[in-house]
Structure formats: C-alpha cells, structure tokens
Design brief:
By secondary structure, the protein is of the alpha+beta class. It is built from two helices and twelve strands. A hairpin with a 5-residue loop joins strand 5 (77-80) and strand 6.
Length: 192
C-alpha cells in the first residue's frame, strides 16, 4: 500500500516539479506567475541595506561572497508600472536647485561666507506659507550637510570673484562690483 501511494504521489508531483523548473517562475498566491517572481499581495522586505554601508553579500562584480562585507552602492531607483511589475528608471533625479536666497553684496573687496546648507535647511523646515493640510516641513527628514555635494553652476563674474564652497556647504565669495538686477548665482545640491 505504501509503495502504491508513493508511486501515485511521485506520478502526480514529478510533472509539476518539471513544469515549475522549466518555467523558472515562482508564484506567491498565484498559480500563473507572469514574471520570474510574481507575488500577488503585499510584500514586506526587512533589513534593507543602507547606501554606503558594507553590509551585502554581492560584490561589485555581481558575484556572491561568503560574508556580508561588500559595500551597497545605490545607483538605480526601483519603480512599478500599473500592474505592479518592478523595474528601474534611468535619469533618477538626485539633485536640486537651492531655494532662492539673498546674499550680502554690500561689503566690497572683502571675502565673505554664507552657509548654503543652513539657508536651505531653514527654508525647507519652516516655509513662510503652505497650502491647506500641507505638512509643516517640506522634507521631514533632510539630508545632513555632509550628505550633499555643492556646486555653483554659473554666476555673474562681473560681480563675484574667488567663489568656492567647502564640503559642509559654506560658500566663500568676494564682491568686486555692485550687482545689477541681472546678477545671479546658480547653486545645485546633489545627494551623495
């Protein structure tokens, strides 16, 4: 009887096993997976790696290693289409223009500093006006000053000279001439 039952189970399960292996698709709560992994329902992933930490098994060549001491370096953003199929998107925006601020141009021919990060933080955490039901802060969790790169993409060279920015977002500049209405400084922040 046991032999007959075993043969019956083997006869029923073997074709299913071969089908599952040949299809190379796994379904959770679905009998007809349309992708390599098809989950019909809510997905929970715990212990995701943090960008910059050495905490993953996959090395930079994409190969498995025996210890989780490889650096996780995020380069792509995961998005979903209307059917829930996950993919990556090119051209992920990891930069933004600094909000408009005024800079002191009254003092001539003397190096001055302005903390660009602090000006950004003030505006994003305490905006002057917000719409009904909008959160108090634009970004509840702001990157720290050392989590950003700072760039001056262009500026009025007739007015400013010796322009530089340190790693903490403090810009140094010298006003060499009185500005006009057309004077400008374009500043970009990039997430590291």
């Amino acid at each position: 009887m046991n032999k007959l039952f075993f043969i019956l189970v083997l006869a029923v399960c073997a074709p299913m096993s071969l089908l599952a292996q040949s299809a190379s698709k796994v379904g959770v709560n679905t009998r007809e997976p349309s992708e390599n992994l098809h989950v019909k329902g809510t997905v929970r992933v715990e212990k995701l790696p943090v960008d910059g930490e050495s905490s993953i098994y996959t090395n930079s060549a994409g190969q498995n290693t025996t210890t989780a001491n490889n650096k996780f370096s995020a380069k792509k953003m995961v998005v979903a289409n209307e059917h829930g199929v996950l993919g990556t998107i090119r051209g992920v925006v990891n930069w933004f223009f600094m909000p408009s601020i005024t800079i002191n141009t009254a003092t001539m021919n003397t190096p001055q500093t302005i903390d660009l990060y602090e000006k950004f933080r003030e505006q994003f955490q305490t905006p002057q006006v917000r719409s009904d039901n909008a959160p108090q802060s634009i970004m509840p969790t702001l990157p720290t000053n050392t989590e950003l790169y700072y760039y001056v993409t262009d500026y009025d060279r007739n007015v400013l000279t010796n322009v530089s920015i340190n790693a903490n977002g403090v810009m140094t500049y010298t006003v060499s001439r009185q500005p006009s209405e057309a004077s400008y400084v374009n500043i970009v922040f990039v997430l590291k």
